[in-house]
Amino acid sequence: MPWVNKKKCVSCKKCIKKCPVDAIYMAKGKAVIEEGKCINCGKCIKICPVKAILKDRDLVKFKISENLKSAKSSLESSKNQRAKKRLIKSQLRQLKREQEIIRGTIKELKRIKL
């Protein structure tokens, strides 16, 4: 499903007008795509003048980049090497927990019989 990079969105509303199923609305001056309504036609991606609407696969790269920026910013504010190591270990633990949650959810979803 397409997603909106809110930092890039300029509130032009072209995506709202182009969406054939009214899956996009504005919230706090930024476009929001409703997952339940979106049919993945990609028209919003093509019409966006600032390339603020991206494909799913672009989300992975974006999130990795954002995570690394956040980590580097945190490391810059740390005073010594020991504090930096603790910070990295803490972030790794958090990401591993998130990974376990995702793997567990995927496993359980596969067990659901339709």
UniProtKB/TrEMBL annotation:
Organism (species): Methanolobus sediminis
GO terms assigned for molecular function: 4 iron, 4 sulfur cluster binding; metal ion binding; oxidoreductase activity
Matches recorded under Pfam families: Fer4_7 (PF12838)
Keywords: 4Fe-4S, Coiled coil, Iron, Iron-sulfur, Metal-binding
InterPro entries per UniProt: 4Fe4S_Fe-S-bd, 4Fe4S_Fe_S_CS, PSI_iron-sulfur_center
Limits of the 4Fe-4S ferredoxin-type domain: 1-28, 29-58
Protein's name according to its UniProt entry: 4Fe-4S binding protein
Taxonomy, superkingdom: Archaea
